[in-house]
Write a structure and sequence with these properties.
This protein is mostly helical. The protein is about 55% helix and about 10% strand. It folds into two domains: about 40 residues; about 100 residues, Alpha-Beta Plaits, CATH 3.30.70. The two termini are about 25 Å apart. GO terms for molecular function: monoatomic cation transmembrane transporter activity.
Length: about 160
Amino acid sequence: MKRFRWLPMPVHSVLLFVVWLLLNNTLAPGHLVLGAFLALAIPLLCAPLQTPQPIVHRPLLAIRYAFRVLGDIVVANIEVALLVMGPMRKLRPSFVAVPLDITSDLPLTVLASTVSLTPGTVSAELSDDQRWLYVHALHLTDEQALIETIKTRYEAPLKEIFAC
């Protein structure tokens, strides 16, 4: 989509205009003018604040990744429910440091969010040099298996999706 300097985010402008009219529930001339003004002014003011984001190079793989994560969430919910219903003394919570190959902000955020979305694991912290993701596991039987699962199931596809 071609962008004009006076209209840096055309989709946002249209959405702002439509939402303004819907919120006010009127097509009065004053609201049309004010909505148009806001739809032009707000994106102009916000455009310098935008940071470039990495491009999704493999959108079909991203869709497959989303379905994989949804499936893992369902399976992990069942596993966590069975663990919690059992005796608590059998749980072995632990922290694991996962070495990272990706360094871009958005893929790192998606990876950390994916780990946190999957029940039984939570992304606790990202190291200052962004080379390690610290993960808390509710029940850890094999540290290396968890690291390999995160790296092969989640990090490797993200590297392909964002070409990093």
